[in-house]
Design a protein that fits this description.
The protein has one domain: Alpha/Beta hydrolase fold, catalytic domain (Rossmann fold, 3-Layer(aba) Sandwich). Helix content is about 25%, strand content about 25%. The protein has helices spanning about 95-105, 130-145, 160-170, 190, 215-220, 235-255; strands at about 5, 15-20, 25, 35, 45-50, 55-60, 75-80, 110-115, 150-155, 175-180, 200-205, 225-230. The chain has a 9-stranded mixed sheet with strand order 1-5-6-8-7-9-10-11-12, with helices on both faces. A 3-stranded antiparallel sheet has the order 2-3-4. Strand 7 (about 75-80), helix 1 (about 95-105) and strand 8 form a beta-alpha-beta unit. The chain is globular.
């Protein structure tokens, strides 16, 4: 690890706070994402050497406020979309969302995610972000004392696809999947392996103005027991930020 930035108590200045209403802060940006008016706990952005990816990557963790360094807490893996990396997670307010989840009565859990490039969380030559998530992130979490017997997975767009594929590829590794507008299409590996998700609670969210809507609806029909939620919104964090509380409710049920 070359450097570590401790972000506890840092404001989300880069996002441009505008107004607060209804317990959430509205941010200036595309379609106005929202962030809970909840405090940060132990939120960190570190750099780690990933052998699976053959490079240094940003590694992000967030513990809900009031739960110290998160020792003993279960982990929700965060898989980003193509336009973000782990370095963007603090500005998206992820540390505040995980505190908000506990304040709403859910069992506590930790968020952990690393930068996976734009490879749809699959291997390409010597760069294997999926192996990083399956092998290296659990080891990094264990070093911090987090519980690592099983994981939830949450991702959006490319990361939603990657979360579903992760659960299919490694049965028993993932206990819950929350996927926002997963970048799926009929005939891809996620559709082909849909039956492998029969024992994993899967939540799917997609905006009605999202070009992926039809494919996500089709996937819901293919995945046994999947639950789909569809509301006004497009393919951006303006919509996804409004879905995080419900997704964290699902994740917490798997963690309790």
């Amino acid at each position: 690890m070359k450097r570590r930035t401790l972000l506890t108590g840092v404001t989300v200045a880069a996002a441009g706070v505008a107004v607060a209403a209804g317990g959430y802060t509205r941010l200036r940006g595309t379609d106005e994402p929202v962030v809970p008016d909840a405090p940060l706990g132990d939120e960190r952005l570190e750099q780690r050497e990933s052998r699976a990816r053959g490079r240094t990557v940003d590694f992000y963790t967030a513990v809900p406020a009031g739960h110290g360094d998160g020792r003993g807490l279960p982990v929700c893996l965060v898989l980003h979309g193509a336009s973000k990396t782990a370095a963007d997670f603090p500005a998206l307010g992820l540390g505040r969302f995980v505190t908000d989840s506990v304040r709403r009565g859910n069992a506590p859990f930790v968020l952990a995610g690393a930068s996976g490039g734009r490879l749809s969380w699959r291997s390409w030559d010597d760069d294997d972000p999926q192996r990083m998530v399956h092998e290296e992130i659990p080891a990094w979490c264990a070093e911090r004392g987090f519980a690592t017997t099983s994981f939830a997975a949450w991702g959006w767009s490319m990361g939603g696809y990657g979360s579903l594929l992760l659960a299919q590829t490694f049965p028993g590794f993932v206990n819950t999947v929350a996927a926002f507008s997963p970048a799926v299409s009929p005939g891809d590996d996620v559709f082909a392996g849909a039956a492998a998700l029969s024992k994993v609670p899967v939540g799917l969210w997609c905006g009605t103005g999202d070009g992926l809507l039809d494919d996500v609806r089709a996937l819901e029909k293919k995945v046994p027991g999947a639950t789909g939620t569809y509301a006004e919104g497009r393919h951006n964090f303006g919509y996804w930020s409004r879905c995080v509380p419900a997704a964290f409710d699902l994740v917490a049920r798997g963690a309790s």
